[in-house]
Amino acid sequence: MKLTDCHNFQDFRKLAERKLPSPIFNYIDGAAEDETTYIRNTQSFETCDLVPNILRGVADIDTSVKVMGQNLDIPIYCSPTALQRLFHHEGENAVAAAADKNGTLFGVSSLGTVSLQEIRKQYHGPQCYQFYFHKDRGLNKAMLENAKEVGVEIMMLTVDTITGGNRERDLRTGFSIPFKLSLKGMYQFGIKPAWAINYLTHKKFSFPQLDDFVDMSDAVMSVGSYFTEMLDPDMNWDDVAEMVDFWDGEFCLKGVMSVEDAKKAVDIGCTGIVISNHGGRQLDGSRSPFDQLGEIVDAVGDQIDVIMDSGIQRGTHVIKALSMGAKAVGGGRFYLYALAAAGQAGVERALDIMRSEIERDMRLMGAKSIADLSRKNLRFR
Ligand SMILES: Cc1cc2nc3c(=O)[nH]c(=O)nc-3n(C[C@H](O)[C@H](O)[C@H](O)COP(=O)(O)O)c2cc1C
User: Fold this and answer.
1) What residue owns the CA closest to ligand 1's atom 1?
2) Distance between CA 270 and CA 268 in Å, rounded?
3) 278 is an active site residue
4) Are 82 and 76 in contact (CB under 8 A)?
5) Is the per-residue pLDDT at 61 higher than 90?
6) How confident is the model at residue 199, as a pLDDT?
7) pLDDT tens digits, residue range 199-244?
8) What are phi and psi of 110, to 5 degrees?
9) Over the stretch 352-363, which tens digit does the pLDDT of each residue have?
10) Helix/strand number for the chain, H first, E second
11) Which residue among the candidates 88, 89, 134, 278 is catalytic per the annotation?
12) Which of 111, 278, 329 to mutate to test the pocket of ligand 1 (most atoms within 8 A of CB)?
């Protein structure tokens, strides 16, 4: 199977599975506990059907959106995800370059493996920095100041990781950073030598967003202990309100699921919220963002940019979310499998396919621009 054989999400997933040692593939592919939320995230798009309009002169299609003050050429962006150089040695550089070519946003994770500075040099699109809140308030301030210096446009605070999700696939394979693999896990690395050669012959794995502030060298701190020792499970609305004031720019909360919290986000001055359940990787049994989107848009959609992620695999999923009132959508696995499959070329292909699906779907819907999409185009079953 080659990159040119990949025509959709499932094809990229298959190719990624062939390329990656299985503990790494399962880290991307897996979710929390019984993975019911993970499955529901995509299934929820099937609860409604699209009702197209005809004869609307759709030769020229405008897929652009404005979200959190940024103009994007397409309404889907690459959600921030950790550890990208583990999936392909080009890592975040590949995703940033592909996002740039497609005129869209790329979120850099706090657990990213390329520095904000390095990405900034070669990527001209708007940059979004995903932040984890530390117990040490001084550290939080220093990290925000660093992001300001780099010129980050959007601060995105993840609020659904107050503790780690129970990801049982990782428990089985022994996946952790640094690696502490089970025997079976080690064997799985042994049978993917191409991955191992690439990993070992490229720049040493590190966490540049954290390295200046936290000692993340192998012997000192694992990703697991970073979460339990450094992050603050007592984080509350007052802490975040202070952070919003300090940042004094575009600020969004990622992982809002209730109307009540969406209203509080407005009250403390956030400019955006991402309705998300972290791709089903945190609280299994939680509602899917698409199921929850309508009521949140109705409550706060005129006061704050409502975005959603989790479960998006197709252009039609994007069209349904935008028709419900989302300003834009994010996706994780749709570009991560492609990254693992073929680095930058893979992510470019995943974004190209997504763009052409969205364009085709808009034509078939009779929508010339995103503003033409509305709930009139949806019927729930
Ligand atoms: C492998 C992987 C790593 C992730 N790392 C982060 C992270 O570091 N920070 C964060 O806020 N979200 C992270 N996420 C969640 C994504 O930002 C996004 O919410 C999720 O992938 C959306 O679901 P989808 O994969 O179904 O599109 C990660 C997701 C995956 C699959």
Assistant:
1) 28
2) 6
3) yes
4) no
5) yes
6) 87
7) 889 998 889 988 888 888 766 678 888 888 889 999 999 999 999 9
8) -55, -30
9) 999 999 999 999
10) 17, 12
11) 278
12) 278
Pairwise CA distance, residues 39 & 3, whole Å:
25
Assess contact for 367 and 59: CB atoms under 8 A.
Answer: no
In sequence order, the 6+-apart residues with CB closer than 8 A to the CB of 318 are 75, 76, 312, 329, 354, 357, 358, 361
- Tokens representing residue 96 in the block: 């940033």
* Domain extents in the chain: 3-380
Q: Is 152 left (phi over 0), alpha (psi -120 to 50) or beta?
A: beta
Look up residue 135 and give its two tokens: 């117990």
CA distance 332 to 254: 13
Residues 6+ apart with CB under 8 A from 122: 93, 96, 97, 100
Cβ of 286 less than 6 Å from ligand 1: no
- In the chain, the amino acid numbered 4 is T
Ligand 1 in reach of 333 Cβ (< 6 A): yes
- The fold adopted by the segment(s) 3-380 is TIM Barrel (3.20.20)
- Report yes or no: 104 and 134 within 8 Å, Cβ to Cβ: no
Distance CA 354, CA 287 (A): 25
Residue entry with tokens 């603050």: 232
CA 287 to chain centre: 18
Kindly state the DSSP code that residue 288 receives in the 8-state scheme: P
Cα–Cα distance for residue pair 100/330, rounded to 1 Å: 15
